[in-house]
Fold this sequence. Notes:
- By secondary structure, this protein is an all-beta fold.
- The chain has one helix spanning about 20; strands spanning about 1-10, 35, 40-45, 50-55, 65-70, 80, 85-90, 95-100, 105-115, 125-135, 150-155, 160, 165-170, 180-185, 195, 200-205, 210-215, 220-230, 240-250, 260-265, 270-275, 290-300.
- The chain contains one helix and 22 strands.
- It has a five-stranded mixed β-sheet, with no helix packed on it. Strands 12-19-18-14-15 form a five-stranded mixed β-sheet, with no helix packed on it.
- It is globular, with a radius of gyration of 23 Å.
Amino acid sequence: MRAIYIVNIWLACAVSCSAVFGFIFNNSPKLHNGTLIPLDPDVCTSQNITFTCTLLSTPNPSSSIGFAVKNESTNREFLPVDEGRITVINETSSEFKIYNINATTYFFVRCYYWETFGNVDDTSKQLGYTSTASVYRKHLKIDSLKLHNGTLVPLDPDVCTSQNITFTCTLLSTPNPSSSIGFAVKNESTNKEFLPVDEGRITVINETSSEFKIYNINATTYFFVRCYYWETFGNVDDTSKQLGNTSTASVYLMPEKVGHMDCIVKNYIDSMRCSWNYGDKYKSGQLPDVEFQWYEFNLC
């Protein structure tokens, strides 16, 4: 009797790419609890900013807190911050400062609890959320205090090219008959400025909730979405009317079936070692998880 083993391997993008292949992948579960502050700050060019990372789990003597930054100068990949730039506050908290900010639009910061310093690909070691810093010219005014409470979902989703995605905005304050919910989007095609979404693209669910859909996503890296509660429709400069937080959508290539896959089985069932080619290079150098589909046939 001999056995034939058939193994199919796919790589997958998050969210609804699963509709194509029947499953999804997610980043590795985080091994530690922690926080990174400030989260999604607004800063001005030539300013300084300090990021502080705090471990909320039991400290490990063999691990240390580190940071990584992604912007245009890093070729849009997360690169570790040099250890010499990190200040250790105590065994559960560290910080680092960025001086004289010169990024033109935005940059991203993560913190990790590393045993091997600088391993930015292992997101299971990340503490807290990724912080997206929006950079403005120095002469711009500080954002006004928000006048209304609300939410925008999904917040910071992962999507694939050619997909669709729906954003839903909900007012949590008392509705005003003279106001309405609107959206604004910023990406490379909008010259990196927030532009209002046409009213005809917005679906009113009820007096406190509306949504709009982006079809056939073609942004190359990421785009930003905000929602507002406007009396004057389309006034994106009045951030006091913003509901919830700005959503940063990361865009990935639509995955394909893994190619050049080879498997070696030892003694039929003792063990199996497989290798494969991911194909497209994934942004940030972070490779997706894979899922095996295992079939066994016994031939007599």
